[in-house]
Amino acid sequence: MYRHLRTAVVIPAYNEARAISAAVTTVPAFVDLVIVVDDASTDATAALAADAPATTRVEVVRHASNRGVGAAIVTGYRRALAAGCDVAVVMAGDGQMDPADLPALLAPIASGEADYVKGNRFLHPAVWREMPPARIVGNVVLSAATRVTSGYHHLFDSQCGYTAISAAALARIDLDGVFPRYGYPNDVLSRLNVAGMRVVDVPVRPIYGPHWKSGIRLGAALHPIPWVLLRSWGHRILRRGAPTARA
Length: 247
Hints:
The chain has helices spanning 20-25, 45-51, 69-82, 102-110, 127-130, 133-150, 167-172, 184-194, 218-222, 224-240, and strands spanning 7-13, 33-38, 58-62, 87-90, 116-120, 163-166, 199-203. It is an alpha/beta fold and 247 residues long. The protein has a single domain (7-240), classed as Spore Coat Polysaccharide Biosynthesis Protein SpsA, Chain A (Alpha-Beta Complex), CATH 3.90.550. Helix 8 packs parallel to helix 10. The protein is globular, with a radius of gyration of 17 Å.
């Protein structure tokens, strides 16, 4: 438990046999529940997650078919709510998120200052030497677009998936409607704006190891994400008349 918050960590995973055990075992001890959502992996991801140390707090949920990272996160959110958790944090199964940053994500929720907290790698001084140049360019472009479509003009690094959300905020958004694949962070931000949720950025360390390889294909960036941005912008305009949510 973090302060007074029963905390869950949701780890969406697809073919992460190489890294999943480390991702699970490095989750801080104050986390009450670790939910690994195996999105129909074809390797040993599920088995390795289940066999990782500290399995008493680990649950592995398997999708029968590949549904996408957004759908895997929603599955984890639903399990966290069913388990009575107060907050759900998303961490990747590939080790790209530093567990040491977890308290910084939880603190604004614990103090009542925010409903949703997201990492911002551009607030960390290591971003310029750690993040590949192509990723920097892509993140800058998508972040600028998401500021417009989501209504949260103070946010940046929209594609950072290291996030924490309160159970109350999860109850206010339509989880069934969240975009199921790449682009889900942009969609979630727009839905949070419609619900009037407070969202803040905190610095997180960018991690790109020597064997890092992006799971995002060019087609995924060129086709679905612009569509998601347009859809979420239209949804927000229709629902709220384009006001900006509280900072």
